[in-house]
Design brief:
Strands 1, 2, 3, 4, 5, 6 and 7 form a 7-stranded mixed beta sheet that branches. The chain has one domain (11-145): Nucleoside Triphosphate Pyrophosphohydrolase. By secondary structure, it is an alpha+beta fold. It has helices at residues 55-67, 131-145, and strands at residues 11-22, 25-33, 42-43, 46-48, 75-80, 91-99, 113-120. It is globular and about 55 Å long.
Length: 146
């Protein structure tokens, strides 16, 4: 199916916030970007939604491609679409979150991720895009939901 529009269309992405409890703080899984933009900076696992793909399926796919983690129980948290957040396109991202079960998952970088590591939510590395602000907003929302 082909579509032709007279105006530019935004790109839709999904990003996964995967958390685990680790004394004395909470950890978040991040990937190091292999490609531009923001090559070698850390980011949330995620990417573009395929034209015939459901959002829930896209975030599960992207998380698994970039970290090796299959997590079918991710939940939608919020959507962000600030103009200029991605230098390539007008991008709207649907943010998901879930908790890591150490007994059933292992982490390994793949696809366009150069590395995948856990970081304290209190000590994030230099981040790509607006992902540091996305993480802070997500943690605030999650705290309110408790």
């Amino acid at each position: 199916m082909s579509y032709i529009y007279e105006y530019p269309m935004p790109a839709v992405t999904v990003d996964a916030i995967l958390l685990r409890k680790a004394a004395p703080d909470m950890k978040i899984l991040l990937i190091k970007r292999r490609n531009e933009p923001f090559k070698d900076l850390w980011a949330l696992p995620g990417g573009f939604v395929e034209i015939d793909e459901e959002l829930d399926d896209a975030v599960i796919r992207e998380l698994q491609e970039e970290t090796g983690v299959f997590h079918p129980a991710l939940r939608q948290l919020f959507t962000i679409g600030t103009v200029g957040r991605d230098p390539r396109y007008r991008t709207i991202s649907v943010i998901y979150y879930g908790w890591y079960d150490e007994n059933h998952m292992s982490v390994s970088a793949g696809d366009d991720a150069a590395d995948a590591q856990w970081f304290s939510t209190d000590d994030l590395p230099a981040m790509a895009f607006d992902h540091a602000q996305v993480i802070l907003q997500a943690l605030g929302l999650m705290k309110q939901q408790r």
